[in-house]
Amino acid sequence: MPKRRHRRWARWLTVMGAVVLIVAGAGVVVFEATVGAATRSVKQQSLLGSSDPATAHATVSGAKNILLVGIDQRPNAAAGTAIRSDSIILLHIPADHKSGYLISLPRDSYVSIPAYNNGVTSYAGGKNKINAAFSFGGRGLTGAQQLSHGFELLSLTVKKLTGITPDAGAIIDFQGFQQVVNVLGQVCMYVDEDTTSIHIGHTADGKQAAPYAINPDGTINHKIAGVTPNFYAKGNHCFTPAQALDFVRQRDLLANHDGDYGRQRHQQQFLKAVLQQAEHDGLSSPTKLPGLISSIGKTMTVDTGGISITDWAFAMRGLNPSGLVTIKTNDGKFNSRSVPGVGSVQILSPTSLDLLHAARTDTVGQFVTAHPTWASS
């Protein structure tokens, strides 16, 4: 296959992980023969609902804000089990479509959630952790309806907080990303702090076992005797599929004690590493591409905001994984408060609110210039 065509494959592949709603950006020129198959691998459904950008916004030109929600559904979870958004990222793409900014919203951010009726249950509205919005929106529902209404209320909550009407949205299933790593074989990335797993370990005879007993709310109850937890030392790692999924779940035993901020940062780094490796493998081994396209697409449920996947892909053709910048709200530092009936929450600082205003006005680049410690490439 000619080198130019290899690049087209690779850029289409990385768009599947980004613009196609969108785990982190990439450049793309759509390779015509793959558009139909690639589009079919991405599950599309209404997610934005009443927060939909509507006809006036359904154009691919100009700055774009895309709401990305990471969930971690366990395979054995009962139907209707409450789903809380594990990771909430606003992907801001400036009007020139040549770069992208991944802005993490801490899942414990204390915000106003609007009143909402999903047709089965009602939520009266009030202040709570932002990740509760997804659960309240989908309460009483199952399957696709649970995801649609959960995302809609979360999107309305983000709109109330930021003034931003998302142009598109995506739900990313981190459990599904294990299959992406299966296709890649491994994912190599830099681990920026020592990380101890609370989920996976091994006994003295090498058998896999849980190293900690976990409470229903996800917190640690106690250490299990005789089980050594997985440990990911600071430095370069090439993760197996199981290790990758385990690593991006961790927030309790991080060396820097940065909790959810650390986990969000690691998830962003992992997604970017997947896209970079997918792009590299697409250029060097085109036989892998169909499987990569399919596996990445299957991890996502998307609402394109009235713009076709093909149009998204073509418009973002100048965006590459190397052009992505991750930004930490609150500069990655805890700003905690205890709220009766809610628990420990994070309060977004005035500067964090300035960052979100910058996403609304397409001035994030200027914000990063003024606050360089908040960003990393």
Main beta sheet: strand number and arrangement? 8 strands, mixed
Enter the CATH topology name of the domain at 3-175 and 300-376.
Answer: Nucleotidyltransferase, domain 5
Q: Helix/strand-derived class?
A: alpha+beta
Q: What percentage of the residues does DSSP assign to strands (E)?
A: 15-25%
Task: Give the topology, please.
Blueprint: H1 3-16, H2 35-41, E1 43-44, H3 54-57, E2 64-71, E3 87-93, E4 100-105, E5 110-113, E6 116-117, E7 122-123, E8 126-129, H4 132-138, H5 143-162, E9 168-173, H6 177-184, E10 187-191, E11 195-202, E12 208-209, E13 212-214, E14 220-223, E15 228-232, E16 235-239, H7 241-249, E17 253-254, H8 259-284, H9 289-298, E18 300-303, H10 309-315, E19 324-328, E20 336-339, E21 343-346, H11 350-361, H12 364-370, E22 375-376
Helix pairs in contact: 1-8, 1-9, 2-9, 4-5, 6-7, 6-9, 7-8, 11-12
Question: How would you describe this protein?
Answer:
The strands form seven sheets. The chain has an eight-stranded mixed β-sheet with strand order 1-18-9-2-3-4-19-22, sandwiched between helices. It has 377 residues and is of the alpha+beta class. A hairpin with a 4-residue loop joins strand 6 (116-117) and strand 7 (122-123). The chain has a domain at 3-175 and 300-376: 2-Layer Sandwich (Nucleotidyltransferase, domain 5), CATH 3.30.420. The protein is globular, with a radius of gyration of 20 Å. It has twelve helices and 22 strands.
